[in-house]
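TASK: fixed-backbone design
INPUT:
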């Protein structure tokens, strides 16, 4: 339970006591419990009025998730399809890395890898039109997740621009997102040791 009566007196981490850190952890636990709501808000913020794409990024995200769901993908991968472009909001030129970092405590190594690398794999479909190497993804051929990422991009991401596709609403995916975000390692830095 959040103790709002605790008044911090420290001005640097090295001055903080165990009681101060207990209060911080209580606060962070309550704050982090609202993470699904913040991610849902981020997804909604992709609902821009104009786009040069056939559908906007919000509709694209819902459609990618719907395609993953209809294909029988596991819940974690459906959620990955739903949030794969949320990094666009703050970091459009490396949004895959941001989306992957955001989900790292909650998803498998495979799903994290797919999120992190999906931008390079998507480039297969358009890099050659923009002066880039459409086969740049091939530098990752030795990864055990190469084919998983190729499949994710081919079946869920690059196809998810059809304005007539029967796309499920965000409310359909919300329970899945909440379940995926309810698991995980929490404060990953607490799992680090000098030996690891």
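OUTPUT:
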């Amino acid at each position: 339970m959040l103790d709002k009566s605790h008044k911090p007196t420290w001005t640097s981490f090295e001055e903080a006591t165990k009681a101060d850190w207990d209060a911080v952890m209580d606060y962070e636990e309550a704050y982090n419990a609202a993470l699904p709501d913040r991610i849902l808000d981020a997804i909604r913020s992709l609902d821009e009025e104009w786009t040069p794409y056939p559908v906007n990024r919000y509709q694209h995200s819902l459609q990618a998730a719907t395609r993953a769901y209809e294909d029988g993908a596991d819940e974690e991968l459906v959620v990955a399809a739903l949030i794969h472009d949320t990094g666009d909001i703050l970091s459009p030129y490396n949004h895959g890395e941001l989306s992957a970092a955001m989900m790292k405590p909650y998803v498998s190594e495979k799903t994290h890898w797919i999120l992190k690398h999906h931008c390079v794999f998507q480039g297969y479909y358009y890099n050659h039109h923009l002066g880039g190497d459409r086969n740049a993804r091939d530098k990752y051929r030795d990864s055990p997740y190469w084919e998983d990422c190729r499949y994710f991009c081919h079946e869920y991401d690059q196809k998810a621009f059809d304005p007539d596709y029967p796309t499920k609403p965000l409310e359909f995916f919300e329970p899945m997102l909440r379940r995926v975000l309810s698991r995980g390692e929490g404060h990953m830095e607490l799992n680090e040791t000098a030996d690891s």
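COMMENT: Helices lie at 18-33, 35-44, 57-70, 75-83, 95-103, 109-122, 146-157, 170-181.
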